Amino acid sequence: MSVLVVAAIVVVVVASALGTVQVLRGPDDASRAVAGDLLFFCATAVFVLVGVLGSIPVLYDVALLAALCGILATAAFARMLTRGER
Amino acid sequence: MSAGDVGSVVAGLLMLLGSLFFLVTALGMLRSRDAISRVNNLSPATGAGLPLVIIGAAVHDLSAGDLTVLDGVKAALAVGAALVVSSVASNLLGRAAYRSQTELDPRTVGNALEPFEELDGVEHDD
Prior knowledge:
The structure holds two protein chains of two kinds. Chain A is mainly α. Chain A has one domain. Helix content of chain A is 85%, strand content 0%. Chain A has helices spanning 2-25, 29-54, 59-81. The radius of gyration of chain A is 15 Å and the shape is flat. Chain B is mainly α. Chain B has four helices and no strands. In chain B, helix 1 (3-31) packs antiparallel against helix 2. The interface between A and B is large, with 53 and 56 residues.
């Protein structure tokens, strides 16, 4: 049922557009960092959904790596927000 | 309607449900008023949205008959990692967001970090 997959892609793209609005709106750095995290997960979801449509062979490798390494970006954002303190 | 068709419809519905969690997260982020609420709002996307999308993709490949055992293991690990790693990441980001903001949303109920981290703008009851 590729119609459902295309609908899911559209919904995730709308969600990431709203996340971009959140990045523009702010109002503080922490909110922008959280919205950036949401955009990362939206991008992962869009990749998985497009991979289902086009039967990309590396789909699960990318999903696993994105889920495992997503913490690095978040930890870097968190360290930046506290100006290097733990 | 064969079993493969039913499987692909179920997979499509799972992926659509997962994508709706992303939409709910984005809308909640626009509605909430401070950074720590937005960190809380991230949880539906990472804890329910991404796992449902990955499970939907695995069900789709399973019903089409081209899901190898290795791919299934990778999908299961990705779901587990999305659940575990994202909660650790949310804790890190939540603490950093709490420390970087000067005042809490007045609707916040309970503040377990208050004895450890002082905020400039928070009014104390005592």
